[in-house]
Amino acid sequence: MPEIARDGVTLHYERQGPTDGPAVIFSNSLGTTLHLWDPILPYLPDHLRILRYDMRGHGQSEVPDAPYTMGQLISDAEAVCDAAEVRDAVFIGLSVGGMIGQGLAVKREDIVRSLVLSNTAAKIGNPAFWQERIDAVQRNGMGQMADPIVKRWFGRDFYESPAMAPWQDMLSQASVEGYCGVCTAIAGTDFYTPTSGLRIPTLGIAGSEDGSTPPDLVRETVDLIPGSQFVLMRRAGHLPCVEQPEAFAGHLTAFLQSIGHL
Ligand SMILES: O=C(O)CC1=CCC(=O)O1
To answer: Which stretches make up the AB hydrolase-1 domain (predicted)?
Structure first.
């Protein structure tokens, strides 16, 4: 079970694929673990070198006391990439994972050669919105909050299907401390200026039914980066890699081909 310690916090990560394959890093969303990406793995090319990790406060990574900062989340991702000796990679980040990707791309050009920004933005919500979420989670616990949050994650068809249950369970099992710590990091992040300076190939992915980061918001962010591509996935919500894994992997693979990463 590979893990590293940074800043006194143990971070869990997993690797798949050949060590000499083209590298991709996956970074997941608030309240999820690295298993968020399980559904797309069977549809990706075999020779990719895949790195996934759990953010601090999530999955099998340690849960330090909240609050956390975006700088800490970015430095954690950087430390995982350094430990796994991953360079020249495509960073695929969903929601807060996409914020981490934007920050790491600014900080470490040697690690992030290209970005996939799925269901994310340079700024998500505002401090009052996130404080309300923190208060509600601290008052009610993750178990009670999982249903209203998951309702915002998925398009209607998926939300009403039995396939939704494991994802609601994942959220119910998240640590309140870790969840609230990351909410604070998101609340304090506005990457419009640094992201506007990025000059790397970028693909934006949005879901037509995403209530958390609607398509216009995703598009506004990827348009900050000249030459970026954008895909709208219809009938998908905030987690299209879960709802439509084959289509999501198809968009990803086509992008990797288009930038010569495959
Ligand atoms: O859980 C949500 O409300 C959606 C979300 C916002 C940032 C993130 O990572 O997930």
So the answer is: 22-244
